[in-house]
Amino acid sequence: MDSNTDMVDDSLVAQSLEDVHLTASDSPQERRGSSPRSVESTPPSTPNGYDITKELEDVPIDLRALVYISMPEHLNCPVCQLPFINPYTTICGHTFCKTCIMETIKSPLGSKCPLDRIELNYNDERPDSGETTFNDIFPAPIILSNITDDLQVRCLNEPRGCTWVGPRWQIKQHLVNNCEHTRFECDHEIDNKVCGKLTERRFLGFECPHQPLACDKCGEEVTLVTKDHHLMNECTKNLRKCLGCNLEFPEKVYESHEKYCEKIYIKCPGSQYGCEWRGSREVLHEIHTSECVFLKLSNYFEKQETKYTDLADENRMLRSQLSTILDSITQGKLTNLGYSLQLEEIMDNQSVEPFKLFDNLQEKDFIQLLMEFEVLKTDVNRLRSLVSERDLDKQLVTVLANDNVQIKDELDNHTVALTSIKQQIQFMLMDRRRLRSKFNSTESVIPSEQDSSSSTSNRFTNKL
Amino acid sequence: MGFGSNRILKELKQFQASDSLQLIPSDDISVQYVDMKVGNNPLYPETYRLRFIIEDDYPFAPPQVQFVGPNKIPIHPHIYSNGHICLNILYDGWSPANSLRTVSLSVQSMLSGNTDGSRPEGDHQYCKSAPKNPLHSKWVFDDDSI
Fold first, then answer.
1. List of chain A residues whose C-beta atoms are within 8 Å of the C-beta of residue B97
2. How far apart are the C-alpha atoms of A323 and A80, rounded to whole Å?
3. Which of A245 and A305 is assigned the larger pLDDT?
């Protein structure tokens, strides 16, 4: 564990105080002002956990040190590349942590968007309100803070053994009120002096956990805090029996013994690929290794697995690149930086010639298209006149047809009239004949020479 | 280094899935080396090594970026024979949204698009008087074509 000596504790206090300066709400000046920590002395890959050394209310938490369970790429600030903390959006639609964008404005880049370098207007601190107001930089929609605050994170005390996982907004409450691994200054008195050592919450009780005790096994002097560590790593009398060879070993060497004990039962190394064999290490080396099919294939399996993970990694990377590019396309901002820096550069450097060629080609095509268009236009005009002629013809035809119908009607009328006249004439002829025959009978004594003339006239009427 | 160190660790992971850019494992997080291959350009058949020195104010200030030995320094009209690179995003044009990877890609594309096999003008003179840190040189960016 990490609380054995005062020296360690002191350096941790110093570090934790510096961490306090790194919190999201603090001004960047303070960050710059803090003495630069040399990288070797505090490797960032092994954070030490969370200590509370001041008043409980005044315990900012370095949200940037949090370890996230999953980090959706889209929720990452382009500057710190971590999920947004107090996100602010620029007029050009990009979002950053508030501290990140404010720090950027103070950096050599100046008041430009780090992604597309659009000039951002903002007013410096107003003396009357003391508030910094920005016209082109404003708080992002609250839903974004809600989403990022809900991301699952691990406890800052994970290196000390805390297994808590929860939403980011709960981390402060967890660390301050609940986490058993948060360290406090021990306020018990030893020899009339306040102990003051940083102690994890789980050791704080009625008595000072730093009081010397005697180890149950070896009698060496330990404290409540160091007891676990002592038993596992130092004590020579804390024995554990090996299940394989039935010999007893101190805890601190047991693990290494377990690795080499010839009698202990172990699984076949090929078990991850499906071998169910179990037996002592001796038998494994002498017999099973030469028989096991899975073991023989394990080389191949491993190769496949690494290939597979490589491909999966590549896939993930490509997918994220693709989504970034798609994003910038949908936003119409393909020329901005971030990812598009590469795009821009590549275009500038590699595609100058092809682009020119493409332009020329387009021009040529355009002219050709224009000519074709003209030809088609004249064609259309010609056809249009033809069509209008045809229309005129059609009108004429309909007029003629109408006339035709009229004429036909008239003709019919005439025919009717004619037949009626014919009938009338016949009737009149009949009448006349009747009258003639009457006339003949009355003048039967007419001389014979008159007979011949009457017969000719008779013939004439018959003709009619 | 502020949150820079956290960010660098994240950035180093971005190199893993890349073939032409190979990150060289380094004990010191503030000094990183990247081996670069340039495909499709006969001017650059070899592997070149880029060195990044990351300062405390990263990512708000640019890292020091230059080519270093033991490999050769690529011949390019914007790369001096002491390894210094004339590229505006490494100096005035730096943006905190850039990363070690995007910078490497920019340099890579600068090489792959080049057809001019010469050093910059006044190369000898510059190398004699140049400061060790390329950030301390005064750069003038006038050529947008390369």
1. 78-79, 114-115, 337-338
2. 19
3. A305
- Protein fold of B4-136: Ubiquitin Conjugating Enzyme (3.10.110)
For A52-67, write each residue's pLDDT tens digit. 765 555 667 778 888 8
Instruction: Tell me whether residues B97 and A114 touch, CB distance under 8 A.
Output: yes
CB neighbourhood size of A269 (10 A): 16
- Integer distance in angstroms from the first to the last C-alpha of chain A? 152
Q: What is the dihedral of CA A112, A113, A116, A121, to 10 degrees?
A: -60
**Helix (H) or strand (E) segment spanning residue B124:** helix B123-129
The two beta strands, A193-194 and A189-190, are antiparallel
For chain B, say whether A321 makes contact (Cβ under 8 Å).
no
Size of interface A-B (CB pairs under 8 A): 103
Q: For A196-218, write each residue's pLDDT tens digit.
A: 777 788 877 777 777 777 887 77
| Phi, psi (deg, nearest 5) at residue B81 | -70, -10
**pTM for the model:** 0.54
Query: Rounded distance, CA A31 to CA A49, Å?
Result: 20
- Taking the CA of residue A171 as centre, how many other CA atoms within 13 Å lie in the half-sphere pointing to its CB? 29
Residue from B60, B102, B68, B61 nearest B85 by CA? B68
A263 in Cβ contact with A244 (< 8 Å): yes
B86 is catalytic: yes
